[in-house]
Every structure is written in C-alpha cells, then in structure tokens.
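Journal club prep, notes for RB
We'll compare a predicted complex against what the paper describes. Inputs for the iron/sulfur cluster case:
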Amino acid sequence: MKLFMPQRVIFDTSSLEYPLGKEIYLFFKEKNVEIVNATARNAARFIPGITHSEKYANSKRTMLITTNKINKLDVCKPSADYQFSIVGNCPGNCEYCYLQTTQGAKPYIKVFVNLDDIFNVIKDYIKQNEGKITTFEVASLGDPLALEHITGSLAKTIDFFSGLENGRLRIVTKYDNVDSLLKLNHNKNAEFRISINSNYVIENFEHNTAKLDERIEAIIKLANAGYPIGFLVAPIMQYENWKEEYGILFQKLEKNLGIHLSKEKLVFELIQHRFTAVAKELILQRFPKTKLDMDEENRTLKWGRFGRYKYVYPKEEAEEIKQYMFSLILERFPNADIKYFT
Ligand code: SF4
C-alpha cells in the first residue's frame, strides 16, 4: 500500500538529543510537511479540529517525536509475557480499535527515539526471569511497521533481539511495509503475526490499512526470509454471511500461501469482537455512520483486565464462533497450532 506521510510532525525538544530523533528530523526536513518544535505536553494544541471526527482525523495525520521513559512493562497475556512500545498509535483508522479509549481526544501518533533506554528495560526483565525465555510484544499500543519507512526503529529492535539468548520479540501488524526487514539477521528471535479478517470487516472497519492480499504477500515474504510467522484473526464478528465470508478467507489464505507454506505448522490466534461502553461512545462520535454492531442487547458483560467491563458475545455464540473457526482452520491447515480463542 502507499506509504504513510503525515501532514504535521511535532518534535519534542528532548527528542533531538537522540540519534534517531536527528535522523527523523533530517528525513522530514526535505519533505512537504509542517514541522513544529514543542514540548510533548503541548503537542495537542497544534492539532486543529472542532468536531470529534475532525480532531480524530487530524490527529491521525500528526506525529509526535518524543521519548518513552518508562521502566516498568505491562504484562501482555495471552500473547506474550510483556509489552513495550517504540511507537504509540498508528495511521490506520480501524473503527473498532481498542486504542480509541486510551489516547485522549486527539489520538496523535507517537514515535519514541530513546531506543537504548527501552532496550535496557527489556534486558532487566530478561535477567529477572533467570535463564528462561521471556517474550515481548511490540505492537500492543500501535503498529510500528506502518511507520518503519520513517523511523527504521523496528529493524533496530529486531537487530537488538537477534543477539538475545532468552528474549523473543513478537510483532503484530495490518501493514505490508516489510521489504527493509527481509535481509536482517533476525536469528529467528522475532516472530510476526499478520492480522487478517473477512472481506466485510476489512472493507467496512479497517480504513487506511493494507488490503488482505497485500498482508498475505507480506507474510509470504517474511516467511521466505526465515521469520517465524502466524496469523491473528481479530476481531471476529458475527453478521449476515459471516460463516461464508470467513470460509472464503481461509480458502484464499490456503491458495495464496501455496502448498509449501500451508503444510507448515502455522500459528493462529483468535479474538472475538468486544467493546466497552466508553469505546462505544467515542466510536459513535468519530464514526457517526459506523456499521459496527455495538448493541448491548446482543452481548454479555465480561470483566476486563484494564478494570472495565467489556461486551462480548454470549457464551453459546462465542462457542459457536470458536468451533466454527477451529473447523475452518483445521480443514485447510491440519498442522495448525491454534494458540487461543478469547
Ligand atoms: S492498525 Fe491496529 S493500532 Fe492501528 S487503528 Fe487499526 S487496530 Fe488500531
């Protein structure tokens, strides 16, 4: 897909003290992009917009180049032991995105340039785990691959992990910007999950992300470059024709992956659609014409790990989705390793 280019880039003053901050500044200096120098605290003031939709759209075209000074990592079950961030948010406009509620009224994109500090925190966590393998998810709070042509920081992260005996990196993405990663010496310590979904979900809800064919092409390139790969099917939704459409998805996947890849022990992770009351309110403000089914009557409440109730499919429907998805996957990929359905 066409590579993302922001309209406006805000450089937090401290970011220019780091080599990556300077590299990104030089990258944008030659581009037709508004450059602003400000503190991270004031960044939102430079993003125009009156209505909720305008603020949202303008924020998604704004990047803040800054630092990430955290020294504690959140757990990231069931997909990894911990999560960390080299970017926050992404240029995509997925209507259901779980980040809707965590990024404020102006959800701009953040890029963190103090990579060595972040890597030192990771090393500490690995050390504390005393000789066991520790896994880290880099894409829980954003999609670094969507920005890789600007930052190059995912390549640096893969390189860092390649030298770790007990650290493994996990990258989930809806983008296809993988070419700069194919020649890296990753040592199989970095694993990709491409997010896939039915045509209805991608077309109606995943705006400004790569098309399904582009994502599949990217995962084939990554597999051929020796990276461990797998698929995240999320969020799985029930709608008219959902069974037929998910059937077509796996049929297409098998065909495009080719005999060689489809016989491998591919990993699948499955997540049903969920939403919170706060997310519903924000989604309706930002996407007033959304077709997302957020009717509480059709769902059941489940306590979430972030201290909020979320609406998920009732038990019987969730079980139906699970059984159906398992059967579709195992029919096409008998050696598949289905890690979880949640
Ligand atoms: S690509 Fe991922 S992070 Fe970006 S909007 Fe979509 S769901 Fe959210």
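Talking point for the session: The first helix runs from residue 19 to 29.
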